[in-house]
Protein backbone atom coordinates (compact mmCIF):
# COMPACT_ATOMS: atom_id res chain seq x y z
CA UNK A 1 0.00 0.00 0.00
CA UNK A 2 1.11 3.56 -0.53
CA UNK A 3 -0.24 6.35 1.57
CA UNK A 4 -1.43 9.89 0.95
CA UNK A 5 0.94 11.93 -1.18
CA UNK A 6 3.25 8.98 -1.74
CA UNK A 7 0.55 8.00 -4.15
CA UNK A 8 1.91 10.37 -6.78
CA UNK A 9 5.52 9.23 -6.62
CA UNK A 10 4.84 5.46 -6.43
CA UNK A 11 6.57 3.80 -9.38
CA UNK A 12 3.93 1.08 -9.87
CA UNK A 13 0.88 2.69 -11.48
CA UNK A 14 -1.90 3.04 -8.94
CA UNK A 15 -5.04 1.27 -10.11
CA UNK A 16 -7.15 1.56 -6.99
CA UNK A 17 -7.57 3.38 -3.70
CA UNK A 18 -9.22 2.74 -0.42
CA UNK A 19 -11.11 5.75 0.82
CA UNK A 20 -12.01 5.92 4.51
CA UNK A 21 -11.66 8.06 7.57
CA UNK A 22 -9.17 5.59 9.03
CA UNK A 23 -7.88 2.79 6.81
CA UNK A 24 -6.16 0.99 9.69
CA UNK A 25 -9.53 0.22 11.14
CA UNK A 26 -10.23 -1.91 8.06
CA UNK A 27 -7.49 -4.53 8.45
CA UNK A 28 -9.28 -7.13 6.34
CA UNK A 29 -9.66 -4.62 3.54
CA UNK A 30 -5.93 -3.85 3.58
CA UNK A 31 -5.17 -7.58 3.35
CA UNK A 32 -7.63 -8.09 0.51
CA UNK A 33 -6.37 -5.07 -1.42
CA UNK A 34 -2.85 -6.42 -1.19
CA UNK A 35 -4.01 -9.80 -2.46
CA UNK A 36 -5.97 -8.26 -5.31
CA UNK A 37 -3.75 -5.45 -6.58
CA UNK A 38 -0.40 -5.93 -4.78
CA UNK A 39 1.29 -2.56 -4.27
CA UNK A 40 -0.71 -0.72 -6.87
CA UNK A 41 -3.09 1.03 -4.49
CA UNK A 42 -3.17 3.96 -2.14
CA UNK A 43 -5.25 5.04 0.82
CA UNK A 44 -6.96 8.36 1.14
CA UNK A 45 -9.30 10.21 3.45
CA UNK A 46 -12.65 11.44 2.10
CA UNK A 47 -11.60 15.03 1.32
CA UNK A 48 -8.23 14.00 -0.05
CA UNK A 49 -9.90 11.44 -2.25
CA UNK A 50 -12.32 13.94 -3.72
CA UNK A 51 -9.48 16.31 -4.65
CA UNK A 52 -7.27 13.52 -5.91
CA UNK A 53 -9.97 12.09 -8.14
CA UNK A 54 -10.98 15.51 -9.43
CA UNK A 55 -7.42 16.03 -10.60
CA UNK A 56 -7.23 12.67 -12.39
CA UNK A 57 -7.54 11.97 -16.08
CA UNK A 58 -10.47 9.76 -17.03
CA UNK A 59 -9.56 6.08 -17.04
CA UNK A 60 -6.44 6.24 -14.83
CA UNK A 61 -7.97 4.69 -11.73
CA UNK A 62 -9.96 1.45 -11.91
CA UNK A 63 -11.87 1.61 -8.65
CA UNK A 64 -12.08 2.97 -5.14
CA UNK A 65 -13.01 0.86 -2.13
CA UNK A 66 -15.09 3.32 -0.14
CA UNK A 67 -15.14 2.12 3.47
CA UNK A 68 -17.74 3.90 5.59
CA UNK A 69 -18.27 3.34 9.32
CA UNK A 70 -21.01 4.22 11.74
CA UNK A 71 -18.91 7.22 12.91
CA UNK A 72 -18.85 8.67 9.39
CA UNK A 73 -22.61 8.83 9.18
CA UNK A 74 -22.78 12.29 10.70
CA UNK A 75 -21.28 13.67 7.50
CA UNK A 76 -22.39 11.45 4.64
CA UNK A 77 -22.33 14.49 2.36
CA UNK A 78 -18.51 14.23 2.18
CA UNK A 79 -18.79 10.58 1.25
CA UNK A 80 -21.36 11.41 -1.39
CA UNK A 81 -19.00 13.94 -2.93
CA UNK A 82 -16.37 11.23 -3.33
CA UNK A 83 -18.90 9.02 -5.14
CA UNK A 84 -19.85 11.88 -7.45
CA UNK A 85 -16.22 12.72 -8.18
CA UNK A 86 -15.53 9.05 -8.96
CA UNK A 87 -18.49 8.86 -11.33
CA UNK A 88 -17.30 11.94 -13.18
CA UNK A 89 -13.96 10.25 -13.84
CA UNK A 90 -15.44 6.81 -14.61
CA UNK A 91 -13.87 5.32 -11.50
CA UNK A 92 -15.91 2.39 -10.17
CA UNK A 93 -17.03 2.60 -6.54
CA UNK A 94 -17.14 -0.44 -4.26
CA UNK A 95 -18.99 0.59 -1.14
CA UNK A 96 -17.83 -1.15 2.05
CA UNK A 97 -20.24 -0.25 4.84
CA UNK A 98 -19.68 -1.19 8.46
CA UNK A 99 -22.61 -0.99 10.87
CA UNK A 100 -24.35 1.74 8.92
CA UNK A 101 -27.97 2.50 9.66
CA UNK A 102 -30.40 1.42 6.98
CA UNK A 103 -31.11 5.06 6.17
CA UNK A 104 -27.40 5.83 5.76
CA UNK A 105 -26.84 2.80 3.61
CA UNK A 106 -29.81 3.63 1.44
CA UNK A 107 -28.57 7.14 0.93
CA UNK A 108 -25.17 5.93 -0.25
CA UNK A 109 -26.63 3.23 -2.47
CA UNK A 110 -28.91 5.77 -4.00
CA UNK A 111 -25.90 7.88 -4.94
CA UNK A 112 -24.89 4.92 -7.03
CA UNK A 113 -22.09 2.69 -5.81
CA UNK A 114 -21.19 0.12 -8.49
CA UNK A 115 -21.04 -2.63 -5.94
CA UNK A 116 -21.54 -3.13 -2.26
CA UNK A 117 -19.70 -5.50 0.11
CA UNK A 118 -20.37 -5.28 3.85
CA UNK A 119 -17.47 -5.14 6.31
CA UNK A 120 -16.09 -7.38 7.80
CA UNK A 121 -15.41 -8.67 4.32
CA UNK A 122 -16.41 -12.25 3.65
CA UNK A 123 -13.75 -14.42 2.06
CA UNK A 124 -13.44 -13.60 -1.63
CA UNK A 125 -16.10 -10.86 -1.49
CA UNK A 126 -13.78 -8.05 -2.62
CA UNK A 127 -12.36 -10.27 -5.33
CA UNK A 128 -15.86 -10.97 -6.63
CA UNK A 129 -16.76 -7.29 -6.57
CA UNK A 130 -13.63 -6.37 -8.54
CA UNK A 131 -14.36 -9.08 -11.09
CA UNK A 132 -17.91 -7.90 -11.42
CA UNK A 133 -16.75 -4.37 -12.12
CA UNK A 134 -14.29 -5.62 -14.71
CA UNK A 135 -17.07 -7.64 -16.34
CA UNK A 136 -19.39 -4.64 -16.35
CA UNK A 137 -16.83 -2.76 -18.42
CA UNK A 138 -16.90 -5.49 -21.08
CA UNK A 139 -19.79 -5.59 -23.53
CA UNK A 140 -22.50 -7.79 -21.98
CA UNK A 141 -22.21 -11.48 -22.82
CA UNK A 142 -25.00 -12.90 -24.94
CA UNK A 143 -26.61 -14.98 -22.20
CA UNK A 144 -27.48 -12.05 -19.97
CA UNK A 145 -29.13 -9.98 -22.66
CA UNK A 146 -32.83 -9.80 -21.87
CA UNK A 147 -35.08 -12.20 -23.70
CA UNK A 148 -36.95 -10.67 -26.59
CA UNK A 149 -40.37 -9.64 -25.41
CA UNK A 150 -42.12 -12.37 -27.37
CA UNK A 151 -40.17 -15.10 -25.52
CA UNK A 152 -40.84 -13.67 -22.11
CA UNK A 153 -43.65 -15.32 -20.16
CA UNK A 154 -47.02 -13.77 -20.66
CA UNK A 155 -48.12 -11.44 -17.94
CA UNK A 156 -51.80 -11.20 -17.41
CA UNK A 157 -54.47 -10.64 -14.92
CA UNK A 158 -57.03 -13.34 -15.18
CA UNK A 159 -57.89 -14.33 -11.67
CA UNK A 160 -60.86 -12.10 -11.44
CA UNK A 161 -58.74 -9.13 -10.56
CA UNK A 162 -57.14 -11.00 -7.68
CA UNK A 163 -53.86 -12.77 -8.08
CA UNK A 164 -53.30 -15.73 -5.86
CA UNK A 165 -50.41 -15.20 -3.48
CA UNK A 166 -48.53 -18.13 -1.98
CA UNK A 167 -45.62 -17.62 0.39
CA UNK A 168 -43.12 -20.19 1.63
CA UNK A 169 -40.90 -19.84 4.68
CA UNK A 170 -38.78 -22.47 6.37
CA UNK A 171 -39.01 -22.89 10.10
CA UNK A 172 -35.53 -24.39 10.09
CA UNK A 173 -32.84 -23.83 7.48
CA UNK A 174 -32.57 -26.38 4.71
CA UNK A 175 -36.05 -27.82 5.16
CA UNK A 176 -36.93 -27.26 1.53
CA UNK A 177 -38.70 -23.89 1.39
CA UNK A 178 -36.97 -22.72 -1.76
CA UNK A 179 -37.22 -26.12 -3.40
CA UNK A 180 -40.97 -26.01 -2.73
CA UNK A 181 -41.34 -22.38 -3.89
CA UNK A 182 -39.54 -22.94 -7.18
CA UNK A 183 -41.15 -26.26 -8.05
CA UNK A 184 -44.60 -25.24 -6.92
CA UNK A 185 -44.35 -22.14 -9.11
CA UNK A 186 -43.33 -24.28 -12.08
CA UNK A 187 -46.16 -26.77 -11.55
CA UNK A 188 -48.70 -23.96 -11.15
CA UNK A 189 -47.49 -22.41 -14.40
CA UNK A 190 -48.31 -25.76 -16.04
CA UNK A 191 -51.52 -26.45 -14.16
CA UNK A 192 -53.78 -25.51 -17.04
CA UNK A 193 -52.54 -26.54 -20.45
CA UNK A 194 -55.18 -24.69 -22.43
CA UNK A 195 -55.03 -21.46 -20.54
CA UNK A 196 -51.83 -21.40 -18.48
CA UNK A 197 -51.74 -18.85 -15.67
CA UNK A 198 -48.87 -16.38 -15.58
CA UNK A 199 -46.62 -16.99 -12.58
CA UNK A 200 -44.00 -14.88 -10.86
CA UNK A 201 -41.60 -15.90 -8.09
CA UNK A 202 -40.52 -13.12 -5.74
CA UNK A 203 -37.37 -14.06 -3.89
CA UNK A 204 -37.53 -12.03 -0.70
CA UNK A 205 -34.97 -14.16 1.13
CA UNK A 206 -32.74 -11.11 0.73
CA UNK A 207 -29.64 -12.58 2.32
CA UNK A 208 -29.74 -16.21 1.30
CA UNK A 209 -31.90 -16.03 -1.79
CA UNK A 210 -31.32 -19.12 -3.88
CA UNK A 211 -34.18 -19.06 -6.37
CA UNK A 212 -31.78 -17.67 -9.00
CA UNK A 213 -29.34 -20.47 -8.22
CA UNK A 214 -31.95 -23.22 -8.42
CA UNK A 215 -33.11 -21.90 -11.80
CA UNK A 216 -29.66 -20.83 -13.02
CA UNK A 217 -30.75 -17.26 -13.64
CA UNK A 218 -28.68 -14.07 -13.68
CA UNK A 219 -29.30 -11.41 -11.02
CA UNK A 220 -30.03 -7.96 -12.33
CA UNK A 221 -28.43 -4.95 -10.64
CA UNK A 222 -31.65 -3.01 -10.95
CA UNK A 223 -33.22 -5.32 -8.34
CA UNK A 224 -31.53 -3.48 -5.49
CA UNK A 225 -32.85 -0.16 -6.74
CA UNK A 226 -36.32 -1.54 -7.18
CA UNK A 227 -36.36 -2.99 -3.68
CA UNK A 228 -35.63 0.42 -2.24
CA UNK A 229 -37.83 2.41 -4.57
CA UNK A 230 -40.69 -0.07 -4.84
CA UNK A 231 -43.24 2.42 -3.59
CA UNK A 232 -42.63 4.74 -6.54
CA UNK A 233 -42.00 2.11 -9.22
CA UNK A 234 -44.50 1.31 -11.96
CA UNK A 235 -45.18 -2.05 -13.58
CA UNK A 236 -42.83 -1.29 -16.49
CA UNK A 237 -39.97 -0.72 -14.07
CA UNK A 238 -40.92 -3.90 -12.23
CA UNK A 239 -40.94 -5.97 -15.41
CA UNK A 240 -37.47 -4.73 -16.25
CA UNK A 241 -36.12 -6.21 -13.05
CA UNK A 242 -37.52 -9.66 -13.82
CA UNK A 243 -35.60 -12.52 -15.35
CA UNK A 244 -37.29 -15.37 -17.12
CA UNK A 245 -37.02 -19.10 -16.84
CA UNK A 246 -38.05 -20.42 -20.23
CA UNK A 247 -41.36 -18.98 -21.28
CA UNK A 248 -43.26 -20.05 -18.20
CA UNK A 249 -41.80 -18.40 -15.11
CA UNK A 250 -40.77 -14.86 -14.27
CA UNK A 251 -38.51 -14.31 -11.32
CA UNK A 252 -37.66 -11.32 -9.18
CA UNK A 253 -34.31 -12.50 -7.82
CA UNK A 254 -32.44 -11.22 -4.79
CA UNK A 255 -29.63 -8.73 -5.42
CA UNK A 256 -26.21 -10.22 -6.17
CA UNK A 257 -24.88 -9.01 -2.81
CA UNK A 258 -26.12 -9.59 0.68
CA UNK A 259 -28.29 -6.70 1.81
CA UNK A 260 -29.73 -6.01 5.25
CA UNK A 261 -33.15 -7.56 5.77
CA UNK A 262 -34.53 -4.20 6.84
CA UNK A 263 -33.45 -2.59 3.59
CA UNK A 264 -37.12 -2.95 2.80
CA UNK A 265 -40.04 -2.37 5.13
CA UNK A 266 -43.75 -3.18 5.00
CA UNK A 267 -44.43 -0.36 2.51
CA UNK A 268 -41.87 -1.59 0.00
CA UNK A 269 -43.01 -5.18 0.36
CA UNK A 270 -46.65 -4.23 -0.05
CA UNK A 271 -45.74 -2.22 -3.15
CA UNK A 272 -43.77 -5.13 -4.60
CA UNK A 273 -46.66 -7.51 -4.05
CA UNK A 274 -48.99 -4.98 -5.68
CA UNK A 275 -46.72 -4.73 -8.72
CA UNK A 276 -46.38 -8.49 -9.01
CA UNK A 277 -50.09 -9.08 -8.67
CA UNK A 278 -50.88 -6.40 -11.23
CA UNK A 279 -48.72 -8.30 -13.71
CA UNK A 280 -49.29 -11.97 -12.84
CA UNK A 281 -52.07 -14.40 -12.01
CA UNK A 282 -50.03 -16.17 -9.37
CA UNK A 283 -47.27 -14.81 -7.14
CA UNK A 284 -45.06 -17.21 -5.18
CA UNK A 285 -42.92 -15.59 -2.47
CA UNK A 286 -39.81 -17.19 -0.98
CA UNK A 287 -39.42 -15.71 2.50
CA UNK A 288 -36.35 -15.30 4.69
CA UNK A 289 -35.91 -17.75 7.54
CA UNK A 290 -36.09 -15.10 10.24
CA UNK A 291 -39.11 -13.08 11.26
CA UNK A 292 -38.76 -9.59 9.86
CA UNK A 293 -40.67 -6.32 10.07
CA UNK A 294 -42.66 -7.34 7.04
CA UNK A 295 -43.43 -10.99 7.85
CA UNK A 296 -46.94 -10.00 8.85
CA UNK A 297 -47.27 -7.92 5.67
CA UNK A 298 -46.76 -11.05 3.59
CA UNK A 299 -48.78 -13.25 5.91
CA UNK A 300 -51.68 -10.81 5.67
CA UNK A 301 -51.52 -10.62 1.88
CA UNK A 302 -50.94 -14.31 1.22
CA UNK A 303 -53.74 -16.71 0.39
CA UNK A 304 -51.67 -19.52 1.80
CA UNK A 305 -48.49 -19.20 3.84
CA UNK A 306 -46.56 -22.46 3.75
CA UNK A 307 -44.00 -23.18 6.42
CA UNK A 308 -41.61 -26.07 5.91
CA UNK A 309 -40.20 -28.19 8.69
CA UNK A 310 -38.80 -31.64 9.27
CA UNK A 311 -39.31 -34.32 11.83
CA UNK A 312 -36.62 -33.25 14.29
CA UNK A 313 -36.26 -31.34 17.50
CA UNK A 314 -34.77 -28.27 15.80
CA UNK A 315 -37.83 -27.89 13.58
CA UNK A 316 -40.20 -28.58 16.46
CA UNK A 317 -38.62 -25.95 18.69
CA UNK A 318 -38.46 -23.35 15.93
CA UNK A 319 -42.06 -24.04 14.98
CA UNK A 320 -43.11 -23.61 18.59
CA UNK A 321 -41.35 -20.23 18.79
CA UNK A 322 -42.74 -19.12 15.45
CA UNK A 323 -46.32 -19.99 16.37
CA UNK A 324 -45.94 -18.27 19.73
CA UNK A 325 -44.57 -15.12 18.10
CA UNK A 326 -47.42 -15.08 15.57
CA UNK A 327 -49.96 -15.48 18.36
CA UNK A 328 -48.50 -12.67 20.41
CA UNK A 329 -48.60 -10.40 17.36
CA UNK A 330 -52.14 -11.49 16.53
CA UNK A 331 -51.13 -12.68 13.09
CA UNK A 332 -53.59 -14.70 11.01
CA UNK A 333 -52.39 -18.20 11.93
CA UNK A 334 -55.26 -19.74 9.99
CA UNK A 335 -53.40 -18.99 6.75
CA UNK A 336 -50.47 -21.06 7.86
CA UNK A 337 -50.03 -24.47 6.26
CA UNK A 338 -47.45 -26.72 7.79
CA UNK A 339 -45.46 -28.74 5.29
CA UNK A 340 -43.56 -31.67 6.71
CA UNK A 341 -40.62 -32.28 4.40
CA UNK A 342 -38.74 -35.57 4.24
CA UNK A 343 -41.84 -37.04 5.86
CA UNK A 344 -41.85 -40.71 6.88
CA UNK A 345 -43.11 -43.16 4.24
CA UNK A 346 -46.32 -45.18 4.59
CA UNK A 347 -44.59 -48.19 6.09
CA UNK A 348 -42.47 -46.26 8.57
CA UNK A 349 -44.75 -46.74 11.54
CA UNK A 350 -42.26 -45.44 14.03
CA UNK A 351 -41.82 -42.28 11.93
CA UNK A 352 -45.59 -41.89 11.59
CA UNK A 353 -45.90 -42.13 15.33
CA UNK A 354 -43.29 -39.41 15.87
CA UNK A 355 -45.01 -37.26 13.29
CA UNK A 356 -48.31 -37.51 15.12
CA UNK A 357 -46.64 -36.64 18.42
CA UNK A 358 -44.96 -33.61 16.89
CA UNK A 359 -48.19 -32.38 15.30
CA UNK A 360 -50.06 -32.86 18.59
CA UNK A 361 -47.48 -31.07 20.66
CA UNK A 362 -47.53 -28.12 18.26
CA UNK A 363 -51.29 -28.16 18.01
CA UNK A 364 -51.13 -28.20 14.20
CA UNK A 365 -51.68 -30.66 11.39
CA UNK A 366 -49.29 -31.32 8.56
CA UNK A 367 -51.51 -30.47 5.65
CA UNK A 368 -48.81 -31.45 3.19
CA UNK A 369 -46.20 -34.14 3.57
CA UNK A 370 -43.33 -34.20 1.15
CA UNK A 371 -41.23 -37.34 0.73
CA UNK A 372 -37.46 -37.44 0.59
CA UNK A 373 -36.59 -37.29 -3.09
CA UNK A 374 -32.95 -38.26 -2.58
CA UNK A 375 -29.95 -36.85 -4.40
CA UNK A 376 -31.71 -35.99 -7.67
CA UNK A 377 -33.41 -33.09 -5.85
CA UNK A 378 -30.14 -31.44 -4.92
CA UNK A 379 -28.72 -32.23 -8.35
CA UNK A 380 -31.67 -30.61 -10.11
CA UNK A 381 -31.09 -27.46 -8.02
CA UNK A 382 -27.36 -27.50 -8.71
CA UNK A 383 -28.02 -27.84 -12.42
CA UNK A 384 -30.50 -24.99 -12.35
CA UNK A 385 -33.47 -27.11 -13.38
CA UNK A 386 -36.90 -27.80 -11.94
CA UNK A 387 -37.77 -31.29 -10.75
CA UNK A 388 -40.35 -31.62 -13.52
CA UNK A 389 -37.57 -31.29 -16.07
CA UNK A 390 -34.69 -32.99 -14.27
CA UNK A 391 -36.48 -35.76 -12.38
CA UNK A 392 -40.02 -35.99 -13.65
CA UNK A 393 -40.88 -39.17 -11.76
CA UNK A 394 -39.26 -38.17 -8.49
CA UNK A 395 -41.65 -38.78 -5.56
CA UNK A 396 -41.09 -35.22 -4.32
CA UNK A 397 -42.07 -33.82 -7.70
CA UNK A 398 -45.24 -35.91 -7.72
CA UNK A 399 -46.31 -34.57 -4.32
CA UNK A 400 -45.59 -30.95 -5.30
CA UNK A 401 -47.62 -31.50 -8.46
CA UNK A 402 -50.54 -32.77 -6.38
CA UNK A 403 -50.29 -29.74 -4.12
CA UNK A 404 -50.25 -27.46 -7.16
CA UNK A 405 -53.31 -29.17 -8.67
CA UNK A 406 -55.23 -28.75 -5.43
CA UNK A 407 -54.31 -25.07 -5.15
CA UNK A 408 -55.12 -24.38 -8.77
CA UNK A 409 -58.52 -26.06 -8.55
CA UNK A 410 -59.33 -24.07 -5.42
CA UNK A 411 -58.34 -20.85 -7.20
CA UNK A 412 -60.40 -21.68 -10.25
CA UNK A 413 -63.49 -22.50 -8.24
CA UNK A 414 -63.11 -19.34 -6.16
CA UNK A 415 -62.83 -17.28 -9.35
CA UNK A 416 -65.97 -19.02 -10.71
CA UNK A 417 -67.86 -18.37 -7.49
CA UNK A 418 -66.96 -14.68 -7.69
CA UNK A 419 -67.65 -14.46 -11.40
N1 LIG B 1 -37.73 -33.66 -0.03
C1 LIG B 1 -36.44 -33.52 -0.36
N2 LIG B 1 -35.73 -34.56 -0.81
C2 LIG B 1 -34.43 -34.45 -1.12
N3 LIG B 1 -33.72 -33.30 -1.04
C3 LIG B 1 -34.37 -32.22 -0.60
C4 LIG B 1 -35.75 -32.24 -0.25
N4 LIG B 1 -36.11 -31.00 0.14
C5 LIG B 1 -35.01 -30.22 0.03
N5 LIG B 1 -33.95 -30.95 -0.41
C6 LIG B 1 -32.58 -30.46 -0.61
O1 LIG B 1 -32.18 -29.85 0.62
C7 LIG B 1 -31.40 -28.70 0.39
C8 LIG B 1 -32.03 -27.48 1.07
O2 LIG B 1 -33.25 -27.17 0.42
P1 LIG B 1 -33.77 -25.68 0.24
O3 LIG B 1 -35.02 -25.77 -0.57
O4 LIG B 1 -32.70 -24.78 -0.26
O5 LIG B 1 -34.11 -25.33 1.75
P2 LIG B 1 -34.46 -23.93 2.45
O6 LIG B 1 -34.92 -22.99 1.38
O7 LIG B 1 -35.54 -24.28 3.42
O8 LIG B 1 -33.21 -23.50 3.14
C9 LIG B 1 -31.29 -28.54 -1.13
O9 LIG B 1 -30.08 -29.13 -1.54
C10 LIG B 1 -32.46 -29.36 -1.66
O10 LIG B 1 -32.19 -29.91 -2.93
MG1 LIG C 1 -34.22 -21.07 0.90
Automatic annotation (TrEMBL):
Residue ranges occupied by any AAA domain in the UniProt entry: 165-325
Cleaved signal peptide residues: none
GO molecular function, one term: ATP binding
Segments traversing the membrane: none
Keywords: ATP-binding, Nucleotide-binding
One Pfam family from the record: AAA_31
Cross-referenced InterPro entries: AAA_dom, P-loop_NTPase, ParA/MinD_ATPase
Domain of life: Bacteria
One biological process term in Gene Ontology: negative regulation of cell division
Protein name: AAA family ATPase
